[in-house]
Design a protein that fits this description.
This protein has six helices and twelve strands. The chain has helices spanning 2-43, 62-74, 129-140, 152-158, 172-180, 205-217; strands at residues 50-54, 58-60, 78-83, 89-91, 96-97, 101-102, 113-116, 144-148, 165-166, 184-185, 190-193, 196-199. It is globular, with a radius of gyration of 21 Å.
């Protein structure tokens, strides 16, 4: 009985320690973020530019958002996330994220690069005029564009892939969508064509992010 009591006490202490450590790390991250923002204000420093990531409200691919977003942020760009609404979005791998803004409220002049994130829910974005109109405006205003996994289908629907080389996560529907959108399909992980970067899935997320940075810096 005494042994079980000792074990229980040690377990409580361990759990309390883990919780405390997590709290400390969270506070540290928030402190470092606040410090960076304060330093930028004090020194007049600015981000190199802004990148907008568009995600499906349900079923965005977590890695296809997280990895490229981290890469562009580490390169000095401010990244914002938009969806159909600002209600919490759910990822295909279980992630949950509250978007910074709704797509309908995005001002194309604020961004240097627009990226549509893939995942099983991304084709749904092609059914919404506010998404298609924003992508069309991006092309008209010579903005850089990116899409990964199934998301190039959304670009195709918006009419911005006409005459472009592109790749996509291959399904009969995605291939048909790109062909109907006038794209030249290439079976590569990542394809760069002037002001456009496309990638074929989460396995290419790292390279996709790297190419996004090269594109926006160019």
């Amino acid at each position: 009985m005494k042994g079980w009591l000792v074990f229980f006490v040690l377990l409580v202490v361990l759990l309390a320690s883990c919780t405390t450590e997590k709290t400390i790390l969270e506070k540290k991250e928030k402190s470092e973020l606040a410090k960076t923002e304060q330093e930028q204000k004090e020194t007049g420093g600015e981000f190199m530019g802004k990148v907008l990531f568009i995600i499906a409200q349900i079923g965005y691919q977590d890695k296809e958002l997280g990895t490229p977003k981290e890469i562009v942020e580490n390169a000095g760009y401010k990244a914002e996330v938009a969806s159909l609404t600002t209600d919490t979005a759910s990822g295909a791998l279980g992630g949950r994220l509250k978007p910074d803004l709704a797509v309908k409220d995005a001002n194309i002049d604020d961004y240097d690069l627009i990226v549509v994130v893939g995942g099983p829910g991304s084709p749904e974005l092609a059914k919404h005029n506010e998404v298609l109109n924003l992508l069309s405006q991006a092309k008209e205003n010579n903005k850089k564009l990116g899409a990964i996994c199934l998301a190039p289908m959304v670009l195709a629907k918006a009419g911005v892939l006409q005459g472009k080389r592109a790749t996509v996560f291959k399904t009969s529907e995605s291939i048909a969508a790109l062909e109907q959108g006038g794209a030249s399909l290439e079976e590569k992980d990542v394809v760069v064509d002037t002001d456009l970067v496309t990638a074929n899935g989460p396995g290419a997320a790292q390279d996709f992010g790297d190419e996004l940075v090269r594109l926006v810096q160019g």
